[in-house]
Amino acid sequence: MIGDDFAELKLFITGPILLREEVRKAGLLPEFGHRDSENPKRFGPIMENLMTIAGNPEGYIPVIFNGSGTNVLESSVRSLVADSEKVLNVSVGAFGDLYHQLAVLNGKNAVQLKFSYGRAVDLDKLDAALRDHKPDVVTFTHNETSTGVTNDVVAICEMIRAHGAKPIIDAVSIFGGAPAMISECRPLMYCTSTQKSLGLPAGYGIGFISDEALEKAESVQNRGYTTDIIGQAAKARINQTLTTPNGTLANQLCVQLDYIVNDETVDGRFKRHEEMRAIAHKWVESMDGYGLFAQEGYRSPSMTAFKTPAHMSIARLKEVKELMRGHGYLFDPGYGKINKELEELGESPIFRVGHMGDIMPGMLAEYLEVLGGVLKSFK
User: Fold this and answer.
1) What is the CATH number of the domain that holds 354?
2) Tens digits of residue pLDDT in 218-247
3) Residues ≥6 apart with Cβ < 8 Å to 235
4) Are 244 and 296 in the same domain?
5) Predicted TM-score (pTM) of this structure
6) CA-to-CA dists, residue 38 to 42, 44, 239, 261, angstroms
7) Statement to judge: residues 172 and 65 lie in one domain
8) Using an 8 Å Cβ cutoff, are 203 and 244 in contact?
9) What CA–CA distance (Å, rounded) separates 29 from 261?
10) Burial class of 344 by CB neighbour count within 10 A (0 to 12, 13 to 18, 19+)
């Protein structure tokens, strides 16, 4: 029978992520018509709870995009960068690079400011780039999934605004695991998705779109259809999606957001993610030759990237992955592009541990204990 050979692994990768049993069961709830009276029973609470998790930023509307976080990023580029404008894409890793790629592939006048892997945005260098390029729009990443770096979103947005530009934030892997700071940052858009810190399957991108963004989009040509934030927001205002939603995921989203807001509480969830970050940092102190990859003071609460000692290699990390599979876990051997570049520079690779969504501190501690034993077998 199909499925008999599917492994039931505990996912400690950086997405997709481990699902609560209640979330899995919610996938069995009844399907519904997305233009029927059943639809707002799901999407009404979804929209309300998304705003609660976001801190109820005034002047923003949550929008559900079918697809992934990448769809939302592309929508922000298509809808908010006019042909006559310049966009500066600030990157601290692979997903910052992706934002730049999306801008280029959509024919935008795009330039890039790129920082070394593991480093956060340097405000002095950002200031210089803003003076040099004089962009109209700036994109950057709140939480870089490939390196475990979390940027100071408030300071970055303040600087962007001081230069007369408008910020857009990629927050795919942090929303639901730490304060979004949307009210403090006032970005045009704050872009995220379901399959990371919200603890859900992949399938929806989520954009918090400002009134300022909707006004700006009016002057942008060729916004597309599914990437047009004006059309998307119009449906969101009546608790609908622009195109047919994944009803199974909508049921799961409704159940999970209610749990986050009313059972665990938003503050409780954020504190749990901070606790897991501390557990990961404490663990590496017991691992001779291993260290934290991200810059001190800018380390993610939702996942941690670890630098390996000289004797480790990409091939050996892949061996670790298979050994951890034997223990019932799915191990993340690091982001391929970054590890390849590190290897070409003669440096040892990194690996990542996802501790987001509904992973509990005890589960993380147990995983790290097993992982430590496996890693110590490699000399």
Assistant:
1) 3.90.1150.10
2) 999 999 999 999 999 999 999 999 999 999
3) 241, 242
4) no
5) 0.97
6) 7, 10, 11, 22
7) yes
8) no
9) 20
10) exposed
Both structure tokens of 334: 């690091």
- In the three-class reduction of DSSP (H, G, I as helix; E, B as strand; rest coil), residue 329 is classed as strand
Does residue 48 form part of some domain? yes
CB 328 within 8 A of CB 9: yes
* Strand 189-193 with 204-210, pairing: antiparallel
Task: Give the CA angle between residues 362, 364, 365 to the nearest 5°.
Answer: 65
Confidence at residue 350, expressed as pLDDT on a 0 to 100 scale: 98
Tell me the pLDDT tens digit for each residue of 144-181: 999 999 999 999 999 999 999 999 999 999 999 999 99
Q: Whole-number mean pLDDT of the chain?
A: 97
Q: Same domain for 122 and 157?
A: yes
Please state, as a whole number, how many other Cβ atoms lie within 10 Å of the Cβ of residue 154: 12
Of 211, 240, 262, the position where a domain reaches its end is 262
Q: Hunting for tokens 């005890």 — which residue is that?
A: 362
CA 175/CA 197 separation, integer angstroms: 6
**Residue 2 resides in a domain:** no
